[in-house]
Design brief:
82 residues; alpha+beta; 60s Ribosomal Protein L30, Chain: A; four-stranded mixed beta sheet; 4 helices; 4 strands
């Protein structure tokens, strides 16, 4: 599943991912297990409402690396094909 992060367009970070989810632009969301619960709880609920699959990743470091960025990431969203 992490291969999607390398092949598809993505949004990184809680604000961008939440906005994309609200607009119905996401096909999946990845959330790091060590992300701050206060930050990701609202996004999880939004994804549930919008029926967007949510996948857990071991750490923010691993998620950032899989997304191809040089910093840790708590959340990454995979955009739908346009």
């Amino acid at each position: 599943m992490l291969e999607l992060l390398k092949r598809k367009e993505k949004v990184v970070g809680i604000k961008q991912t939440k906005k994309a989810a609200e607009l119905g632009r996401l096909e999946a969301v990845f959330i790091a297990h060590d992300a701050d619960l206060r930050v990701v709880t609202q996004l999880r609920q939004l994804c549930e409402e919008k029926q967007i699959p949510v996948y857990g990743i071991e750490s923010m470091k691993q998620l950032g690396k899989a997304a191809g960025i040089d910093v840790n990431a708590s959340v990454v969203g995979i955009e739908k094909n346009q």
